[in-house]
Amino acid sequence: MDSLLWGADVNAQGGYYGNALQAASAKGHQEVVKLLLDKGADVNAHGGASGNPLQAALAEDYQEVVKILLENGADVSAQCGMRGYPIQAASLKGWEEIVELLLDKGADVNIQDDSDYGNALQAASAAGHQEVVKLLLENGADVNAQCGLFSNALQAASFGGYEEIVKLLLDKGADVNAQGGIFGYPLQAASWSGHQEIVELLLDKGADVNAQDDNHYGNALHHASVQGHQETVRLLLDKGADINAPGNDGRNPLHGAIERGKHGIVKLLLDRGADINTSTFLYRNALHAAMVEGQQEIVELLQARGALPLERSGSPRPSNSAESDSLMDYECSCAWDYGEWELSGSESSPDNEDSTMDG
After folding, report:
1. Coil, strand or helix: which one is 145?
2. pTM for this structure?
């Protein structure tokens, strides 16, 4: 191999990886990486598919190559595309030794970018790497830094269901009501995912059970209801959640559960006092929501629970139903009239209603 490099430009640019060092790093060839560096290869050469050799090795999980590159002067602060900074990439993978090495080499523990995870602490928290989270916090990571998809590390850990990391972050001063990110609040993130123990922990630490996020589902109860997490719904109600609180798009938890076909949640909410005839700008009442969404079993449940017929709930009787002899014909006509509406969020994630839903 040494003879093959005789007279060759080890920093020649070209090809998929941009240069020989990045190619060798991406394939995990430790001895080739060492040889190229000995022959003067630029350890921080930019270009190619991964941006630089260090990111190439990180992306392909070659920890030993990462160590070689760092010991030979790889820039720990070089940002490369979707992978962000090296410390974020290593934290996301849970590479405690590499994270420690990066910190020893001067990596900024709080450096941020516009990638999904924003910073190293959020990346480690989202992936459930508790020891890396500890290491980052011990080295000065800002527990309440705002950035990334989840906005903060606590929301990321709450969504992922990592209870020990949630406890650790709270112990280090994480704001339990920090607002921002895809779910708005940590409580909403945990409720959406059905992590009941974390929901209870957050509430015990002062989470606002009725906080409204900027997304269309609003409060935590609505998030749990649309996902079908029956025990989480019960817990939130026991802790004082407003059962009729409308979301930012007008829907309430009952309407959200109806849209998703969560029969067990609908029954639970009705049992706990949800207003069956509340109207929103989307629906005349719960019965209207069920018909719009084609939820026949829920239609029958609502009728049995005393839902007002649409003609008695403030909905004007359409002229094309004048010849209908039955109430159901009229109700179906109303559902047809409104069926063209596209309801955002109704298919945003898989339905995983608890196995006890319909019990």
Report:
1. coil
2. 0.84
